[in-house]
Design brief:
The chain is mainly alpha-helical and 186 residues long. It folds into two domains: 1-123, no CATH class; 130-179, no CATH class. Helix content is 51%, strand content 7%. The chain has nine helices and three strands. The chain has helices at residues 6-13, 19-22, 24-38, 44-65, 73-82, 133-139, 143-150, 157-161, 165-179, and strands at 2-4, 91-95, 101-105. It has a three-stranded antiparallel sheet. It starts with a strand and ends in a 7-residue tail after the last helix.
Length: 186
């Protein structure tokens, strides 16, 4: 395995996780439906090109501000449109022997920053504002259960059902600070 510093690889690969781009997938899908409905005579290749052109016209400022090189844009558009979350096929985050969180490339082909396919969407388990995290754990159906399983606080649904909601929420809230990576969007 190849070892990279997490911030370095995120910079090098231009992995930008931003609330400003989270809505792009839905917008792109809406445009796809509108394009297909409004222009039924277009070939699928023409529709794809029109969707991409609309995507760029709507989001060029964001992509430029985030310093995402233009050669990534077409693949990024396709991954957003198709909700392709393939980062896990290329790398993983893991604790090193010294306990630090590191990025490890797991793809046999490696990752090339010049390869337009090496731009990735990252699906978050949970996006929250710190002030509302505890309340979200209590009120969003299934969130506490999912987080308990992801954090290793429970191994089965039966383990979860044996714990009170309040106790489960507190266990998650206590452990999450050791596991979460905080990303600040400028």
């Amino acid at each position: 395995m190849v070892h990279f510093d997490p911030l370095c690889i995120l910079n090098r690969l231009r992995l930008y996780v931003s609330k400003r781009l989270q809505f792009v997938s839905n917008v792109t899908k809406r445009l796809s439906i509108e394009t297909t409905v409004n222009r039924p005579g277009l070939s699928s290749k023409m529709v794809d090109e029109l969707e991409y052109t609309q995507f760029v016209s709507m989001h060029q400022g964001q992509l430029t501000a985030a310093q995402i090189p233009q050669y990534f844009w077409r693949i990024l558009h396709a991954k957003l449109k198709n909700e392709t979350y393939d980062a896990g096929s290329y790398f993983t985050l893991a604790r090193s022997e010294d306990g630090d969180l590191r990025v490890f490339v797991t793809s046999e082909e490696g990752i090339e920053t010049s390869n337009p396919n090496c731009v990735f969407l990252i699906d978050h388990a949970w996006t929250y504002e710190v002030n509302y995290a505890r309340e979200q754990l209590k009120t969003i159906p299934g969130l506490a259960d999912r987080m308990a399983l992801l954090m290793g606080l429970a191994s089965t649904d039966a383990d979860i059902s044996e714990t009170s909601r309040e106790e489960l929420t507190e266990k998650i809230f206590d452990k999450m600070w050791r596991l979460v990576l905080l990303i600040t969007v400028p």
